[in-house]
Structures are given as C-alpha cells and as structure tokens.
From TrEMBL:
Record has Lyase as a keyword: no
Originating species: Ideonella paludis
Domain GTP cyclohydrolase I: residue ranges: 64-242
Entry EC number(s): 3.5.4.16
Protein name per UniProt: GTP cyclohydrolase I
Reactions it catalyzes: GTP + H2O = 7,8-dihydroneopterin 3'-triphosphate + formate + H(+)
Keyword DNA damage: no
Amino acid sequence: MADPTQAPSRPSGLILDEADLAQMPASERIRYRLVGADKRYHANDNISAFVREGELAEIKAEVQAKMAEVLKALVIDTESDHNTQETAKRVAKMFVEEVFRGRYQPMPDVTEFPNISRLNELMIVGPITVRSACSHHMCPIIGKLWIGVLPNEHSNLIGLSKYARIADWIMSRPQIQEEAVIMLADTLLERVKPDGLAIVMEADHFCMAWRGVKDNDSAMTNSVMRGAFLKDANLRREFLSLLPKKS
Ligand SMILES: Nc1nc2c(ncn2[C@@H]2O[C@H](COP(=O)(O)OP(=O)(O)OP(=O)(O)O)[C@@H](O)[C@H]2O)c(=O)[nH]1
C-alpha cells in the first residue's frame, strides 16, 4: 500500500483506491484528486468541486493542529496563556469558514432573468465592500469596488445583490488585487454575457500599512475593461465619471 501521507505530485503514477484515500489526511486526499484531474489549486482558486462532505471539518482540524505547532514555534505558552489557549482553533475556523471560504465553497446560487425589456443602458453597482487577503503575507486587503455593465438583449440579468455575493466569493481568498479583478470580470462575463463590463477596485493593503514599508495612506486602484468599455472611449468616460470622486 502507498504511504498514506504522501500524495503523488503528478497524476501518472500510483492509482489509489478509496480505502487508501481514506487513510490520508483530508488535505492530501483532496490534493490527490486535484492533481489527478490536472486542476490548478493556487491560493486564489476555488477547489470546492474536489471537497466531499465532511472533509472541511477534517481540514479545519488539520489546520488547527498545524497552527498549534506554529504558536509553539513562536515560543508562546498556549497552555498557561489564557488568551491563546483557543487561538489555533479560532484561526483554523477563520481561515476555512470565514476569510478564505471562497476557496472551499461553491459559487452562490445566482438567479438569472431574461432581458425582456431589452435593456441596453449602462448600469453601475457599487461601492461593494471588498475583504480579501494578499497571498504574499496573508494580510488583509480592505476596500471597495464598482462594477459597470452594458447589457444587450441576449444578456442574463442577475439580481443586484448577486454582484456583491459573487464579489465576496472571489475576494474571500488569498490573492493579488490585479488577479482578483480579472477573476471577477471573467466570472461576471460568463454569467451575464453583456456587451461590456468594467470593474474598478480601490483597496488598502495591510501588508503595506501594518508591516513592511508602513505606509498608511497609499491605496491601490486598478481597473479591468471588457468588450464595449475597451472599444468605446465615451462609454468608459461615462462609467468613470459616474464613480464617486476619490478623496
Ligand atoms: N502587485 C501587488 N502587490 C501586492 C499586492 N498585495 C501585496 N503586494 C506586495 O507584495 C510584495 C511582496 O514582496 P516581497 O518583496 O517578497 O515582500 P517583502 O520583502 O516582505 O516586502 P516589503 O513589503 O516591501 O517589506 C510587497 O511589496 C507587497 O506590498 C497586490 O495585490 N498586488
């Protein structure tokens, strides 16, 4: 039988059966499935399709055990320090169920409505609050974003709240801002199928404020323009002019 703690690094190689997989830690089991399916599992990827029932609880327990080791390595006496006794458990819960849940949960259900009225005017939603984390230091990224949509008669209209729900699902992963907005744009394009889509995001990166260069005042602003927003400078101007002026 294969060493249960070692998942193969590539799909060719040993094929494990369910009994072998059951012996592995959940994280190795899930990684084995991902590698077998040749799926990327970077920090900003959603891997929910490879996680089976009950496995998130197992992952949480694994993270808790490793986090306890991190605290030990930091020479923190978690046994007598009443403030840190439950910290490993809290951090594991925070990672898996809260701040990185966008990796482990499927996309929220999105009801789509046909564009009966053939709406074809610019629609803007925002500011949508962004809560994310940088994949370099896992420090928070807090900010806001605006989404502009130019639908056509074949577009799917989605409920306004769904823009915020999809944004939250994508942002709740460790990542970099440039990739986050592209991922959000791709996801919305696929659902809504508009003539044009634009996103502007402005966020504070705590890895720049709390540590490192310790610059509290600089935020990062970036945008992604697709379809009509790329081709039509007037539309782009209209969208940008309707965003609240930055302070
Ligand atoms: N481009 C980009 N950079 C980011 C983002 N979030 C954090 N960073 C930066 O990622 C960089 C990490 O680079 P490193 O030079 O390896 O890290 P470091 O030595 O700790 O750097 P300092 O932060 O300058 O102390 C830092 O400059 C961060 O400010 C992001 O969303 N986009």
